């Protein structure tokens, strides 16, 4: 894991478009890979494809794997690629088995603002274009190894340009229309009315992330959606990834 120094940033939604504070935290250097997830299934049989309940994962769960609890014939091509087609329930269980947790939306967005040289590259046109270019490309048949992905200034790989990632509160930007008048809710409605509460209506790439998250249900599995784990900075890390 690597340490992400605490700071403030203005999220696309929430807090009346004011900066929010993000305490320092630890985040996995890479998204979880197929080989790591294979080892998790070996020790946690209830999450195998044949055992998992539909409540916790839909029919697309690990559909790119040939085996029930192993990658199978594509192992050499996929072992170091990020695992995808996993639900929020399973991602959460994986992280908890490591003594970790999924990152929050604010933690993920804060860490993802970093370029190779800047902690906050939100106003960098080149950095913004990199995200835009990735969103416009079709998914490759085989995702590249996590070690070959973009590395930002924190030492995190693949925050941009590899896969979408689950967060613990992925649906925190979604409410029903009837609830918008409820002042106790600091959330917005997607998609049509979503832009009305955005802090930067020109930030299309951030809007895409929030809109994508709001479309998910916890048992959904998606071919380009993976995850990585986080920890509070106060928790001692005894091993690195």
From TrEMBL:
This is Formylglycine-generating enzyme family protein. GO terms for molecular function: formylglycine-generating oxidase activity. PANTHER family: FORMYLGLYCINE-GENERATING ENZYME, SULFATASE MODIFYING FACTOR 1, 2. Residues 17-231 form the Sulfatase-modifying factor enzyme-like domain. It comes from the Bacteria. InterPro entries: CTDL_fold (IPR016187), Sulfatase_Mod_Factor_Kinase (IPR051043), SUMF_dom (IPR005532), SUMF_sf (IPR042095). Pfam families: FGE-sulfatase (PF03781).
